[in-house]
Amino acid sequence: MAGWFIDSHAHASTTGLGYREIVKRFKAAGGRLIVFVQLPPSSYGYSTDLEGVRKSLDTHIGICSEVRKELGGVLCLVGVHPATVDRLVRSSKNVDMVYRELLTSYMRALEDLLRKGLADGLGEFGRPHYPSPPESLVVNELLLVESMRLAKDYDVPIHIHSENSGFITLESIKTFTNLVGLPKDRVLVHHVPPSQAPLYAEAGFHVSVVGKAEVVKELRGLCRNVLVESDYLDDPKRPGAVMYPWDIGPEVMRVVEAGIMERECAEKILLENPASFYGVSK
Ligand SMILES: [Zn+2]
Of the N and C termini of the chain, which has fewer Cβ atoms inside 10 Å? Predict the structure, then answer.
């Protein structure tokens, strides 16, 4: 077993441990690469409005880029979480304006970062995992399509957050990627329940599952196209949620030691698959 692992989807805030501390602890535990995905505005102390979303982008990419340069082993993904889009839509009397602003100003800012090589990919885009008004769904899906277009044009990975409804979720992601012409191997469906992982993986998408032993053991030997994530929130009100990035390696190895997963499979999901998905050398 190579003594290192990759966290395929994590978050850092300015109210919790913060980017630097997380990367330091992650590396000390044998972590090689951690993928930081932008959080909602409240995680950076901003209000949930269009200005707050814009400020979150600046804060996230600012700190993330610094830490990437300083410590290495970091990727910075930019986007707007479907739950944030939902809150913007719900709190506005003018849904058209919210959509136009996000599309013509915010998405262009993301494009600019991709063009300049300042962001490494896109995420999270998709749909909320809880019931939301129809307008929220429409705006989220329009932004999802636009983000897929950017992922295709700039050849970068994209993380999808979804309702995890299995077959119909797969069909919708498949339909959107086909329409846009985005190669499936650029798409990571994140925080997927292990029972649904084979569905996406067999269709050619990548999935990431939470790296806790009780989740990983439910993969039942599936390793192709599977990555592991902490989805760490860095929220001081929920310390350790969803899990700490540095626990990924030990947790997966517990499943191997229990004889439930082959060592080669663990190496694939911890190292080989994410290294090839993100295009970094092993
Ligand atoms: Zn996340």
Answer: C
The alpha carbon of 35 and the centre of ligand 1 are apart by a number of angstroms equal to: 10
Helix 82-91 to helix 50-71 angle (10° resolution) is 160
Measure 11 CA to ligand 1 centroid, in angstroms. 7
Give the span between the Cα atoms of 110 and 120, in whole angstroms: 11
d(CA 249, CA 56): 30
Say whether 9 sits in a helix, a strand or coil: strand
Q: How far is the CA of 254 from the centre of ligand 1 (A)?
A: 24
Centre of ligand 1 to C-alpha 215, Å, is 16
What is the β-pairing status of strands 74-78 and 158-161?
A: unpaired
Residue ranges of domains in the chain, CATH in brackets: 5-237+245-278 (3.20.20.140)
Q: What is the pLDDT of residues 164-216, one digit of tens each?
A: 999 999 999 999 999 999 999 999 999 999 999 999 999 999 999 999 999 99
* 231 C-alpha to ligand 1 centroid (Å): 5
Neighbouring CB atoms inside 10 A of 143's CB total: 21
* Ligand 1 centroid, distance to 190 Cα (angstroms): 8
Neighbours of 210 (CB within 10 A): 22
